[in-house]
């Protein structure tokens, strides 16, 4: 049985998001997985970031601790999950797997994937408020929703303009509930959406 690793040439991940760099094979009888390692090459220097052997998983680069993992109990899957992607994570990732056969010989295969980390442009929030100039009868309830698309995570703040020209903070969620409205609730409400 010929063991072979399959991966893909390039993966694109979003800054602050997570991505999986695939590295899989079909388990064959008579071959036991001995080692899995992942190395990263960037700016013409290469370093091992992850190593799995009989003693467990070892993450060799501090900047990847708590951010990288390889599936534990799925035979044939040595894919690398990277979370909270940072711009310097871009580079060439090599997955190397070594098997031991029944006659004790070792077989090693490797596959390299290029990871490109990209930033997604943040867009200005668009506010959906029924229609411009929302009219609601006294005593009724409504809510204002602020929708923003862009790089997650996005935080929201709802304000109301006061006659003095200052803004009063009303809430920190995308949706601002306005129950049992009174005439004094009339005014200008605005939302602010913010990301990193």
Automatic annotation (TrEMBL):
GO terms for MF: complement component C3b binding
SUPFAM superfamilies documented for this protein: Immunoglobulin
Superkingdom of this protein's organism: Eukaryota
Family annotation (InterPro entries): Ig-like_dom, Ig-like_dom_sf, Ig-like_fold, Ig_sub, Ig_sub2, Ig_V-set, VSIG4
GO BP terms, alphabetized: negative regulation of complement activation, alternative pathway; negative regulation of interleukin-2 production; negative regulation of macrophage activation; negative regulation of T cell proliferation
Domain Ig-like as annotated: residue spans: 17-112, 125-196
Gene3D superfamilies found in the cross-reference section: Immunoglobulins
Protein name: VSIG4 protein
Organism: Sylvia atricapilla
């Amino acid at each position: 049985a010929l063991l072979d690793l399959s991966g893909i040439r390039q993966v694109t991940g979003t800054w602050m998001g997570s991505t999986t760099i695939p590295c899989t094979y079909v388990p064959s009888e008579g071959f036991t997985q001995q080692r899995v390692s992942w190395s990263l090459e960037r700016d013409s220097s290469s370093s091992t970031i992850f190593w799995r052997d009989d003693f467990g998983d070892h993450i060799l680069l501090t900047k990847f601790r708590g951010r990288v993992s390889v599936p534990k109990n799925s035979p044939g899957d040595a894919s690398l999950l990277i979370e909270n992607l940072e711009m310097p994570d871009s580079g060439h990732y090599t997955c190397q797997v070594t098997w031991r056969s029944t006659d004790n010989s070792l077989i090693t295969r490797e596959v390299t994937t290029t990871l490109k980390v990209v930033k997604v442009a943040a867009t200005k929030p668009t506010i959906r408020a029924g229609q411009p100039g929302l009219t609601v009868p006294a005593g009724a309830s409504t809510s204002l929703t602020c929708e923003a698309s862009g790089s997650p995570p996005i935080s929201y703040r709802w304000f109301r303009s006061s006659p003095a020209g200052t803004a009063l903070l009303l809430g920190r969620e995308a949706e601002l509930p306005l129950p049992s409205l009174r005439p004094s609730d009339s005014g200008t409400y605005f939302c602010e959406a913010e990301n990193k």
